[in-house]
Amino acid sequence: MFTSCTSPERDLVKTTGDLFLAGTETTSTTIAWALLFFLHHPEVQDKCYKELCDVIGTGRLPSMQDKPEMTYLEATTMEVLRKGEIAPFAVQHSTPHDVTFQGYVIPQDAVILPNLDSVLLDKETWGDPDNFRPERFIGLDGKIVKPEGFIPFSIGRRVCLGESLARMELFLYLSTLIQRFRFLPPEQETLPPLEGVMGITYCPKSYKIRAIPRE
After folding, report:
1. Any idea which positions bind heme (predicted)?
2. Given 13, 147, 171, 200, which residue has the most CB atoms within 10 angstroms?
């Protein structure tokens, strides 16, 4: 497929593939976690819908211009990214040369897996890391706060290049879904467990959900 492509064309194909594959898998998994959390915490879904009605209403679709006014939905999305931890070990890297870190020698070409899970669920940082609580990202002034330990997209020079795209996609998808539907568990069935399986990402186990159109 690539034999007849020049180097710039090949790079463009690969970059476009990364954009669609990485963006699609991670975003869809985050949305799956968000809907599962809504089933377990209907009051969060209700608060998101109330905020959406107050800011946007139901007569038009949400747009990125609305995002600064949607504080609670933004905090909810951040909590989904923290608690869902879809990439607990981020992407593997390697050391270009021997590195000494806090007394430990990491040899050249060693495979490095950052443990984001240990930060996103750290009790000293979050206090109650096992609880799903969007309010932790809202300050006393009603504005979004971003603790240093909030690193679902990794940190430093190797931070995910698609972070801004992912945040845009999540806002548009989630706000539109909440505006149009109320999400409930199947009738006469217990809530699906908040358990995940590790694949390309850490995604929730398959579950059933009812999407009730809002009037």
Report:
1. 160
2. 171
Distance CA 14, CA 8 (A): 10
User: What is the distance of C-alpha 85 from the center of its chain?
Assistant: 7
Q: Which amino acid type is present at position 93?
A: H
Domain assignments of the chain as residue spans, ordered by start: 7-87+132-213
**pLDDT tens-digit readout, 130-139:** 999 999 999 9
CATH node for 7-87+132-213 = 1.10.630.10
- Both tokens of 177, joined, read 């879904």
pLDDT digits (tens, 9 = 90+) for 107-125: 999 988 888 889 999 999 9
User: E strands of the chain, at which residues?
Assistant: 93-94, 99-101, 104-106, 111-112, 181-184, 196-198, 202-204, 210-213
